């Protein structure tokens, strides 16, 4: 089921629930995307290679090859097409974030198709990336936007694109406290209070990777700020 590919490019939807796939397709087409649907993981992976979509909407719970494995194989092929996961369960969210597949975002079922379209547009914006800027240093952490590299002291720290964008946003305004909603809006490109846990999960990942050097401070009841250690 391929649509023409109007201005925004082709989005591949891999979803075994036909009703959900059709609904997603309807809303994406309405927003100006072309849409191609596959209903299992291996067909989905073949379609990624064949069609070169601008983004993939990928159900995690697929028969055969599941969505996480599809994404893992894409990244193993050095294919960094933005992926928006569709998950049915919270524990899948932890797997997605923890695996560091370079996947950009996820929505949890049930979701509003309108929100899904907003998320697809946001992952595409983020994949396009902001204009490179000068390096920023907070405490022992140095962030180089041009090379998208981060060092904690002498050690290079490998971050996912979302972790990098979140850290960059905090470090560009040292000591400024951002609410989770502000971070969602600035980094993920949308504001939905229901998704604030996403911010906490990514902050936890950043802290684990940066270790002692982490400049991220929790401001209880408010949000997060980047500050050099006292
Ligand atoms: Ca499914």
List the helices and strands and how they pair.
Blueprint: E1 10-14, H1 18-30, E2 34-38, H2 41-51, E3 55-59, H3 67-76, E4 83-87, H4 90-99, E5 105-108, H5 113-128, E6 136-138, E7 141-144, E8 149-152, E9 155-157, H6 161-171, E10 178-179, H7 180-188, H8 196-210, E11 216-219, E12 223-226
Parallel strand pairs: 1-2, 1-3, 3-4, 4-5
Antiparallel strand pairs: 6-7, 7-8, 8-9, 10-12, 11-12
Helix pairs in contact: 1-5, 2-3, 6-7, 6-8, 7-8
Q: Please, could you describe this protein's structure?
A:
- There is one protein chain.
- This protein is an alpha/beta fold.
- The chain has 2 domains: 10-128, Rossmann fold (3-Layer(aba) Sandwich); 136-226, Winged helix-like DNA-binding domain superfamily/Winged helix DNA-binding domain (Arc Repressor Mutant, subunit A, Orthogonal Bundle).
- It has 8 helices and 12 strands.
- The chain has helices at 18-30, 41-51, 67-76, 90-99, 113-128, 161-171, 180-188, 196-210, and strands spanning 10-14, 34-38, 55-59, 83-87, 105-108, 136-138, 141-144, 149-152, 155-157, 178-179, 216-219, 223-226.
- The strands form 3 sheets. The protein has a 5-stranded parallel sheet with strand order 2-1-3-4-5, sandwiched between helices. Strands 6-7-8-9 form a 4-stranded antiparallel sheet, with helices on one face.
- A hairpin with a 2-residue loop joins strand 6 (136-138) and strand 7.
- The longest helix is centred in the middle third of the chain and has 16 residues, at 113-128.
- The termini are far apart.
- 37% of the residues are buried.
- Residues 1-5 have low confidence and may be disordered.
- The chain binds calcium ion.
- Residues 16-17, 59, 61-62 line the site of calcium ion (CA).
């Amino acid at each position: 089921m391929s649509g023409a590919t109007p201005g925004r490019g082709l989005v591949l939807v891999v979803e075994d629930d036909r009703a959900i796939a059709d609904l997603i397709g309807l809303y994406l087409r309405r927003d100006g995307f072309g849409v191609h649907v596959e209903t299992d993981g291996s067909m989905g992976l073949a379609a990624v290679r064949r069609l070169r979509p601008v983004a993939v909407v990928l159900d995690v719970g697929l028969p055969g090859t599941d969505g996480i494995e599809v994404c893992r194989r894409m990244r193993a092929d050095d294919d960094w097409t933005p992926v928006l996961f569709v998950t049915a369960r919270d524990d899948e969210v932890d797997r997605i974030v923890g695996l560091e597949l370079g996947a950009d975002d996820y929505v949890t079922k049930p979701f509003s198709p309108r929100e899904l379209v907003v998320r697809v547009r946001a992952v595409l914006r983020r994949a396009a990336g902001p204009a490179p800027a000068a390096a920023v240093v907070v405490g022992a952490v140095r962030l180089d936007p041009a090379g998208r590299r981060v060092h904690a002291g002498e050690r290079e720290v490998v971050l996912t694109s979302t972790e990098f964008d979140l850290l960059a946003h905090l470090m560009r305004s040292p000591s400024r406290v951002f609410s989770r909603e502000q971070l969602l809006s600035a980094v993920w490109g949308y504001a939905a209070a229901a998704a604030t846990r996403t911010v906490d999960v990514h902050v936890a990942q950043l802290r684990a990777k940066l270790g002692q050097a982490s400049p991220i401070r929790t401001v209880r009841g408010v949000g997060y700020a980047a500050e050099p250690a006292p």
